[in-house]
Design brief:
This protein is 34% helix and 26% strand. The strands form two sheets. Strands 1-2-4-3 form a four-stranded antiparallel beta sheet. A two-stranded parallel ribbon has the order 5-6.
């Protein structure tokens, strides 16, 4: 059980220690990662820092609940930061796509481009054309981001 729990935290897991009546879960996080966690039961301390990583300790009382709490908190922090990294990567890809579009299309075509989030659209949404980039919620993932080229 503990192996599976720690394995979820790899490659960021450093160590798990008990100090007095506390448990310390020590993690290696990239410098740009955010690790703020709002919980009075968990104390977060940066133990060491170099040009690549922060060694961060998450300390809480050494109880069954404390162990569960600290592991769940760190797992959420990892998931949050991995999602941020994916969003940044996707953002950079979309910037490249837009740069290509701006390089290949006429000024008139580019001026007519509209971004519409259909989840927020109301009855007065302009007609969707070939120059409309429509953001719809993806039924499978719940994410927005489909382009409409139907011209309807």
């Amino acid at each position: 059980m503990i192996f599976k729990t720690i394995d979820k935290l790899r490659p960021h897991f450093m160590s798990l220690r008990e100090i007095d009546d506390n448990v310390s879960l020590d993690m290696k996080f990239p410098l740009k990662w955010k690790y703020d966690y709002q919980n009075e039961s968990i104390k977060i301390m940066v133990q060491d820092k170099n040009e690549k990583i922060n060694l961060v300790s998450f300390v809480t009382p050494a109880t069954p609940e404390g162990y569960e709490l600290v592991f769940a908190a760190v797992e959420k922090i990892i998931q949050f930061n991995l999602e941020l990294e994916e969003k940044e990567k996707l953002f950079q890809e979309k910037i490249s796509e837009l740069k290509g579009l701006f390089a290949s299309e006429s000024l008139k075509t580019l001026q007519d481009i509209k971004f519409i989030n259909t989840a927020d659209a109301d009855e007065e949404t302009p007609e969707i054309t070939d120059n409309t980039i429509k953001l719809e919620k993806n039924e499978k993932t719940g994410n927005a981001g489909q382009e409409d080229n139907s011209g309807s």
